[in-house]
Amino acid sequence: MASKAKALPAGWSLILDEVQTRLDHAIASVNARIEQTSAANAPSHADERRQEIAQWSDRLRRLSVYLESAEQIVQSVDELLQKEEATLRQQIETCQSLRRKAG
Fold first, then answer.
1. pLDDT score recorded for residue 6
2. Whole-prediction pTM value?
3. Sign of CA dihedral 38, 42, 48, 49
4. pLDDT at residue number 4
5. What pLDDT shows up at residue 1?
6. For residue 16, what are the contacts with CB-CB under 8 A and spacing of at least 6?
7. Rounded to whole angstroms, how far apart are CA atoms 33 and 85?
């Protein structure tokens, strides 16, 4: 058989009630301080976030402009290389044609 748990000694109920009251008071006090701190810090924290987002937005905008510029440069170089390749292929064909005629 399982033994039954003994009841608390006399007076313990009052001690536990006092502990519970003190814990409730401490929790209420901490919650009040958290609310005050949150209320005081909320605008500055939100402002910091807005500034951070604005900075990242500006960086992304500058990066986008830079990438567009780089893409234009790459396109120009690609077009130039295509023209040069066409010129070289034409010169190779001319050289091969001359070899056949000379040979």
1. 63
2. 0.45
3. positive
4. 54
5. 44
6. 8
7. 74
The span from the CA of 14 to the CA of 10, in Å, is: 9
The dihedral through the CA atoms of 30, 32, 34, 37 has a sign that is negative
Dist CA 59 CA 52 (whole Å): 11
Q: How many CA atoms lie within 13 A of 81 on its CB side?
A: 6
Which token pair is 78? 């690609």
pLDDT score for 21: 93
The amino acid occupying position 16 is L
Q: Give the mean pLDDT per block of 10 residues along the chain (103 residues).
A: 59 85 92 80 78 93 91 93 97 93 82
Q: Measured at the alpha carbon of residue 38, what is the angle toward residues 34 and 39, in degrees to the nearest 5? A: 120
Per the listing, tokens 């937005």 go with 57
Question: What is residue 33's predicted lDDT score, i.e. its pLDDT?
Answer: 87
The residues, any chain, with a CB within 8 Å of residue 40's CB and separated by 6 or more, are none
Residues 6+ apart with CB under 8 A from 8: 16
